[in-house]
Amino acid sequence: MFDMDSRLQQDSLVLGDFPLCRLLLSKDANYPWFILVPKRAGVSELFDLNQEDQAQLWKETTYLAEVLKREFAADKMNVATLGNVVSQMHMHVIVRHQGDPAWPAPVWGKVPAVGYAPGQVDAIRQRLRALLTHDYQEA
Q1: Residue 116 lies in a domain
Q2: Could you report the per-residue pLDDT of 35-77, keeping only the tens digit for each?
Q3: CA distance 74 to 90
Q4: Is residue 139 situated within a structural domain?
Q5: CA nearest 126: which of 37, 27, 15, 45?
Q6: Can you list the pairs that 44-50 forms with residues at least 24 positions away whose Cβ atoms lie under 8 Å?
Q7: Would residue 71 count as lying in a domain?
Q8: Which residue range(s) make up the domain with 120?
Q9: How many domains does the chain have?
Q10: In a domain, 138, yes or no
C-alpha cells in the first residue's frame, strides 16, 4: 500500500494525481516548486520502479515540466531526485527565474521558506486546472 512520507506531508500540499504520481506543491512560495511522488510502496530509488513505471515517471515529469516552463515563464527548470532527507522516491520539478532568491544556486537551504499568502495556492490550483488536462485529476 502507498503511504506518503510524513516529511512530504508536512512540507507540501496535495494538488492531485497523475496515473503514477501524486502531485504536490512545496510550502515554499519562493519558487513554484512541485513534487511528483510515485504511488508505489517501498520505492526509494528510481531503479526500484519497474521499467513501465520508470517510463511513466519520465512521461509525467516531462509533461509537468513543459507545462510549468510555459505557464510560469521559467528561465530554467530544475528537475531532480535526491532523497537524502526523505528516502521515499520523489521528483522535484522547480521553476527557476534569474533573480529568484537562490539564483543561480540550488534552492535547498539557500534562503528560509516563505509560506503562501491566502489565496495563492487556490490561484495555482486554478492555473493548473486549465493546463494539466492529460491524465490528471485534481485532489
Answers
A1: yes
A2: 999 999 999 999 999 999 999 999 999 999 999 999 999 999 9
A3: 21
A4: no
A5: 15
A6: 44/83, 44/87, 44/88, 44/89, 45/83, 45/89, 46/81, 46/89, 48/89, 49/89
A7: yes
A8: 6-98+106-132
A9: 1
A10: no
